[in-house]
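Tutorial handout. Part one gives the primary structure; part two gives the three-dimensional structure as tokens.
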Amino acid sequence: LGAGLVQLAHLHTSPNSQAPVPALPEKGGKTRHGIIPEELFQILYPKTGVTGPYVLGAGLLTYILSKEIYIINHETFAAACMGTVIIYGVRKFGPDVAAFADKLNEEKVQKAQEVKDLAMTSLAQAIQDEKKEQWRAEGRQMLFDAKRNNVAMLLETNRRERVHMVTNDVKKRLDYQIALQTLHRRMEQEHMVNWVEKNVVTSITPQQEKASIAKCITDLKVLAKVQQAKTTA
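Part two.
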């Protein structure tokens, strides 16, 4: 009730009704006589003074009873007895029950904190694993680039080998053509030489042959004399 009054006072007194509502307190506020919140007295103090809340409560109770809005009967006494028992039980056993509830709450909070810490640890490990996988992915990109370069080098090597093979084949065919032309030229030259020699031999008469032989013998004798003179000198 006290928290609700605070929220209500905040909504009605704030110049901006759209302002964010503050968070509710974890523990209840102060009360008077066990059930009346302290905020009610603080709200009435500026307008009614210190005795204003008590006068307002007594007047309101008198009005309700005088107008018979509420009639006192046997149920009233039963409710008073039950309220007395409840108040006594709350004051007697309330601190122990509150301590037990706080202990249970602390255990639940501790378990929730352990679960949270475990989840944070697992998430942090997952983040580290994700970063490692991203780093590995970057390394795979470098590996793929290296493989692409190797494949490109292999393709270039194969292309150059084919070009070299084609060049060798063309060179061999050109060498064959050159050798064939050289063979044809040599055979033509030999055929021409044999034909000329045959015609020359055929055109020489026996007299010319004898004269040529005699001329050769004479030349050999002259050469022999010259060689003999050189030897004697």
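Part three, for discussion. The longest helix spans residues 74-203. Strands lie at 31-32, 36-37.
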